[in-house]
Structure formats: C-alpha cells, structure tokens
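Cont'd.
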Amino acid sequence: MLPSKVRIAFIAGTRPNFMKVAPLLRELPNWPQFTGDLIHTGQHSSPEMSDSFFEDLEIPEPDVNLGVSGGTHSQQTAEVMLRLEPVLEQRQPDLVLVVGDVNSSLAATLVAAKMHIPVAHVEAGLRSFDRRMPEEINRIVTDAVSDYLFTSEPSGQENLLAEGCPASRIFFVGNVMIDTLLRYREKASRSQVLERIGVRPRHYAAVTLHRPSNVDEPAQLRALLGVLEKLSERLPVVFPVHPRTRNRLPAVLPGAPALILTDPMRYLDFIRLIGGARLVLTDSGGVQEETTILGVPCLTLRENTERPVTIEQGTNRLAGTDPEQILDAAFSALEGGRPQVRPPELWDGMASRRIFHVLANIFSGSDRARPRGQLTHSDRSGITEPSE
Ligand code: UD1
C-alpha cells in the first residue's frame, strides 16, 4: 500500500501573501509525498487586491475561501479563527503553513497550534522592534508558537535565537517573494503600464503608502502628501493608492493633486512600475525587498525596518517620517547614480524548493507528523533535488 501523502494547508489572506504562497504552490507537485489545500481567508477580497494576483501569478483557485473581510484587527483575527477551525477539523492537515505577518497569518497559527497541528512560518524572525506596528505583534506571536521557522535573511535567525527559540527549529532558506519576482520579472517588463499612465522609464518616482502610522492620522498623511507634491515639481510622481489610504484621502486632499493617483495595480504592472522608476518611496515591507533586487533606489518612509538586509546590501534607505528629511533624502537620491545590486544571500529564486526539502526531511519515514521540535541535523542541510 502506498503511504498516504502529507497534507499541507497553505494559508493566504492578503495581497502580499499571494506572492509568497505562489512559488510554494508551484513547487508542490514536484514532491509526490505532499499534497495541499489553499485556504484564502478573504482578508483581501476585492478584484484589485486579490483576483488579479491569482491571475498574474497563476495561483490555482483556493480550495476554501473563509470570506472574512473588514472589521477591526480583533474582529478580523477572531473571525478567521472561528471560520478556520472547522475547516481544519474537516481537512485534517498534517501541517499548516503560514506566510508573512498579517492578521490572517496570526489567526491561522493560533488555531492550528491549539489543535496540535504543526505550524510552519515562512518569513519568520523579522523584527522592527516597534510594537505599535500591528504586524510586529503578529510576527512575535506567530513565531512563538510555530514549530518550523523559515527565515529569509540573517537577522531572522539572530532575532529568533535572541528570543530563546531553539536553533533546531530555524531554517535559513531565502526569500519566497523574490522567487516570485525572479520568475515574473521578464514578463512584467512587457507590461504597458508606463505607456498607459504616460511616464517614461527612469523619469518618474513611484510611491506606496498604507501603514496605519502614516495614513490613519490626517496630519501625518497631509504632511507626506505635501512632500510628494513638492517632489512632483521635479519629476512625475505615480502613486497607486491602497484601499486603506484611499478611504482617508478625501479628508486631506480636497483639490486636484499634482500627483498621478491610480487604483492599486496588478502584480505585473506594479513590478514594471517600480522596476522602471528613478526612485521609489514606500512604507511597505515587500517593496523594500523587491527594489533591492531590481536595483532601484528606495526610500522607506518609516523610522525602522524589519528587513535590515535591504539597507546593508540593498538599495533601501530609512528616510523617516519627517517631511524635510524625506525631501532631502529624495533630492539626494535623485542626484546619485543607479546603485549596485548585491542580492542578499539565498535571494536566488530557490527558497520554495529549499522549504520543501526541509519539510521532506521532517516528514520522512512512517511517522508523518513528527513530535514538535524534534528535528535532526540533516533537516538543516542544503538543497537537494525533489524525490522522484
Ligand atoms: C494588511 C496587512 C498589512 C499588509 C497589507 C497589504 C494586517 C495587520 N495588515 O493591511 O500588513 O501590508 O494588508 O495590503 O494584516 N480593503 C479593500 N479591499 C480589499 C481589502 C481591504 O477595500 O480587498 C479595505 C478594507 O475594507 C479596509 C482597508 O482596505 O478599509 C484595510 O484592509 P485591512 O485588511 O484591514 O488591512 P491593510 O491595511 O490592507
């Protein structure tokens, strides 16, 4: 009799999650000992934030959609928990795999851990050390109760070890979001988005803003928009507006702005937009990583980053949230040349394969779901080919 397959429940809820599960789902069929279900929590559900990403990234239809959208953080988290529990009860996965740091990742981790289902966290160990960020709370709790921690950069391992996490649970595998970027970069270069907007490559700045700390407080949002308007006197500024920000714009931007405001973009268009920019200004985590690989100067409009490798080796600079400082940083970035690209270690398009290699070791043999935390040294070894 053939041994039964190890069943993985992949959890995705928000726009940045889709780029992270896509390469894992693509890798899955190469490993015959595994099977999987994709569970969409619904946290992001509008076509522009969800469906278009499934299309561009060729992600299969979710097996289950929990349909949780909107609400406060607690409502969102609780609702995902309530709706996920019976789904896991019914599907009986051997492993729940969560990516990133959003409310859906936290909720799924808590449900699985309480049901004694092992949890793997992809993109573990990142820390901004700023607990006012909702994502920081999500990261800390998710990592604390996950069994297998897959890190994307060296700081991840350092932070986890400093928090007392056993080294045997930590696996440095690289960055799954970069797996997606490298796969679709060429295709994105054929996007016509710049022509549609009417800007020329290297002659515009691209902006994203959606962190609560930047957009929820009208005075702060107004100050940042003031900076962008000043910058637009030097070059066109293209700003795809996230729904959270869009909901708040009318209160602070009554007149016609000098900025080029657009709806949120689909993946391929967005990669073309930031890849072709002279300068990117952002408060997103993923964009700091993507600009590092694309070699585009990036100013992060925050006081901290949980992704220090993008500053140490990448094109990212912390510009803070003070308007004067941001403008100074933007003008000096415009003076500078195009930075050298030094891809961080293991940001090579193979992170998903490494994750499956580790999982294959963990779940090898007849004891499908090994007891929590019992990893052998070989689980930490390098990449090998998937089994035939
Ligand atoms: C969430 C994540 C954040 C991530 C971001 C990427 C948390 C705590 N935050 O923030 O880490 O960087 O996603 O986008 O999980 N909305 C729509 N359409 C949608 C989804 C949301 O209009 O498809 C609206 C919601 O109604 C809400 C707002 O956008 O008003 C914010 O959505 P929410 O899921 O609460 O958090 P984000 O700010 O998107």
